């Protein structure tokens, strides 16, 4: 419990600092927030007054920040100047697509990366050489190139998957998100496979593994209890960081496959100078990142209780 409370307190501090930076950095643009909000447009005095009232620009900075933070904690991120609706509604409508995409990609990364890395670590030789070659090739190809190739081969050529759009219904969404999820996860799965392979190889050479074998324990038992369990700690850590990085990587994939998710919304908000949407999306992504780190810490603690000391 003390371990969990320490982690929660640390994450709370991180979120407060991040929210302050998210809110404050946009006020440092040349010309101030009004120049950012208006862009190249020349608003009428009534429009300027409405914007100043909406963003509390006449109040001191700390008062504006605390008021914005209080509203954000309650799920109120203000109204979008471009879409003319609540930012919370925009995030809810598009967050489902991004969550499904990241979740699908995470499953692919964990299954493919851990399985391939374990096989390469336990079976040196041809299997290790093939997996190492494929992982190196996957890491060398940029994400957008992988997406374009998958569209050409599996969507346009074979017609197995749709080209654009998130789909409807759960199964329909999974069908539409298969190519984007593979595109998003391929490089990360290759990286995780290399980490898993190195971790398994390192554990195979440790003294306690040789001791377990000398006691006559079955090889399956030695691998499961003494190799894979200890090798899983760095694998879990890297998996958590990789999943957190998928939130940023989804921006490219959503634009390639025309998915209306948080990534594409964020890009459009920056180009259209939609102040409230930019702040909200960044804060949501930071919150997701720190929550993933919390889950990783708890998993590592469960695998090795000594980490809580």
UniProtKB/TrEMBL annotation:
Residues 95-296 form the ABC transmembrane type-1 domain. PROSITE patterns: ABC_TM1. Coiled coil: none annotated. This is ABC transporter permease subunit. It comes from the Bacteria. CDD domains: TM_PBP2 (cd06261). It holds the Pfam family BPD_transp_1_N. Belongs to the binding-protein-dependent transport system permease family. The chain crosses the membrane at residues 7-29, 101-122, 134-161, 173-193, 233-257, 277-300. One of its GO terms (biological process) is transmembrane transport. Keywords: Cell membrane, Membrane, Transmembrane, Transmembrane helix, Transport. The keyword Membrane applies. It is a multi-pass membrane protein. It is found in: Cell membrane. The lineage of its organism: Bacteria, Bacillati, Actinomycetota, Actinomycetes, Kitasatosporales. GO terms for cellular component: plasma membrane.
């Amino acid at each position: 419990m003390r371990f969990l409370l320490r982690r929660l307190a640390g994450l709370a501090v991180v979120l407060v600092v991040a929210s302050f930076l998210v809110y404050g950095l946009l006020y440092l643009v040349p010309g101030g927030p009004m120049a950012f909000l208006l862009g190249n447009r020349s608003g009428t005095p009534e429009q300027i007054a409405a914007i100043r009232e909406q963003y509390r620009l006449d109040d001191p900075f700390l008062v504006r920040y605390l008021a914005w933070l209080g509203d954000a904690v309650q799920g109120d991120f203000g109204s979008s100047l471009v879409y003319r609706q609540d930012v919370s509604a925009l995030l809810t409508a598009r967050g489902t697509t991004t969550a499904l995409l990241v979740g699908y990609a995470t499953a692919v990364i964990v299954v493919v990366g851990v399985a391939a890395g374990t096989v390469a670590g336990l079976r040196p030789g041809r299997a290790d050489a093939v997996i190492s070659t494929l992982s190196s090739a996957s890491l060398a190809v940029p994400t957008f190139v992988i997406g374009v190739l998958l569209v050409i081969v599996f969507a346009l050529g074979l017609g197995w998957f749709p080209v654009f759009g998130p789909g409807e219904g759960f199964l329909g969404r999974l069908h539409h998100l298969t190519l984007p999820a593979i595109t998003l996860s391929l490089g990360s799965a290759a990286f995780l496979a290399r980490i898993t392979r190195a971790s398994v190889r390192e554990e195979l050479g440790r003294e306690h593994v040789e001791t377990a074998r000398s006691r006559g324990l079955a090889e399956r038992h030695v691998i499961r209890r003494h190799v894979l369990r200890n090798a899983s700690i760095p694998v879990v850590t890297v998996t958590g960081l990789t999943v957190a990085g998928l939130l940023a990587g989804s921006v490219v994939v959503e634009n390639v496959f025309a998915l209306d998710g948080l990534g594409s919304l964020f890009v459009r908000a920056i180009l259209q100078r939609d102040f409230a949407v930019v702040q909200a999306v960044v804060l949501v992504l930071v919150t997701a990142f720190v929550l993933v780190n919390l889950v990783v810490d708890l998993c590592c603690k469960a695998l090795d209780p000594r980490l809580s000391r």
